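Q: I have 257 residues here and want to know how they pack in 3D. Can you give me a structure?
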Amino acid sequence: MSELNVLTYNVNGVRAAIKNGFLQWLSDKDFDVICLQEIKVALEDFDPKPFEALGYTCYLFPAQKKGYSGVAIFSKIKPDNVVRGMGVAEYDAEGRNIRIDIGDLSILSAYFPSGTTGDERQSVKMSYLDAMYDYLHELKKTRPNYLVCGDFNICHTEIDIHNPLQNKDTSGFKPEERAWMTKFFDSGFIDTFRTLNPQPNQYSWWSYRANARQNNKGWRIDYIAASKSLDGKVKSSLMYPDAVHSDHCPVFCKVEI
């Protein structure tokens, strides 16, 4: 039995995060797999060498639109398989999902759509949730042990947001989004962070406005969800709110494999 250290991080532009000290922060850490969201970089514009120097091989799935969305997985362990996309053209064009398989464990990096720009994108978000639910349950038939890492763009419960009453109809905390999260977890998944950290006032994203981060007025929208088959194998989970390379912070879990 060995342990795998997994990190997920919405970097809000990987090149911007590097400028903000992301590589220096990584240099004294010991993560085996790093799942990134919102990398905002095309393949031809990304230089993997600094990450390779830290021992990672970089697998990217950018959006077709430059400077937008995109996901990646950086791994120190050579995967048996890499799958880019979920087989739905609309979402694959936006670079929303990438998966690696290591032995009998699969790790997904997922960037769920945001609905904050209006009704049209909220509709896209809800359609994506349905497609993602189907994809994950189909995957479970052949790959039952997996982690879904990423920016879900949803706070699940009132403890996951600093002002639940004010935001009850805001995208990211709408009743139908929260109901999807409940359905998702009830269908065979574990919220690794919340299972081990029941305390309030722990968030993974803060607005750039009104000193939200300094005042810890945040939202917990970044998750590492583990399939129920890994219950008991998640040994620790934490967030790094002091890592300030993005408007999000990294989320970590250690899992036995």
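Q: Anything worth noting?
A: Residues 3-256 form a domain with the Deoxyribonuclease I; Chain A fold (CATH 3.60.10.10). Helices lie at 14-19, 22-27, 49-52, 89-92, 119-142, 175-186, 192-196.
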